[in-house]
Amino acid sequence: NLKKRKLYINDIKWIEALGDYIKLVTDEANIVILSTMKSFEKQLPEEKFLRIHKSYIVNLEKVEKFNSKNVEVDGRQIPLSRNKKTELAEALSNV
């Protein structure tokens, strides 16, 4: 509806790609924005967010656990790219 909305970066749990749009998942709502993952990723603080899959960016502070295939955020399984596993482990050790 082309409404402007204030959103705190700490409220974002993860970001999901939806074609030409992205979905920001928070506790209150899922917000869909016309943007590419690449351009939105550039606006996020690198120490707080990590792209773990071509279609997903997670808030490192919200990650509960992960294994070789998935990351768990708020009880939901999010796919983890094989080549991002070590990057995720390093990033989580710095949080």
Structural write-up:
With 95 residues, the chain is of the alpha+beta class. 17% of the residues lie in helices and 38% in strands. It is built from two helices and eight strands. The strands form two sheets. The protein has a five-stranded antiparallel sheet, with helices on one face. A three-stranded antiparallel sheet has the order 6-7-8, with no helix packed on it.
Pick out its properties.
95 residues, alpha+beta, 17% helix, 38% strand
State the share of residues found in helices, binned by percent.
Answer: 10-25%
Largest sheet: 5 strands, antiparallel
β-strand percent reads 35-45%
Question: Terminal Cα separation, in Å?
Answer: 36 Å
Give the mean pLDDT.
93
Q: Low-confidence runs (pLDDT<50, min 5 residues)?
A: none
Q: Which descriptor suits the 3D outline?
A: globular
Strand order of the largest sheet: 3-2-1-5-4
H/E series: EEEHEEEEEH
Q: Give the structural class.
A: alpha+beta
Number of helices: 2
Number of DSSP strands? 8
Q: Radius of gyration in whole Å, from Cα?
A: 13 Å
Describe this structure in a few short sentences.
The protein has helices spanning 37-43, 85-93, and strands spanning 14-18, 21-25, 30-34, 49-53, 56-59, 63-66, 70-73, 76-79. It is an alpha+beta fold and 95 residues long.
What is the topological layout?
Elements: E1 14-18, E2 21-25, E3 30-34, H1 37-43, E4 49-53, E5 56-59, E6 63-66, E7 70-73, E8 76-79, H2 85-93
Antiparallel strand pairs: 1-2, 1-5, 2-3, 4-5, 6-7, 7-8
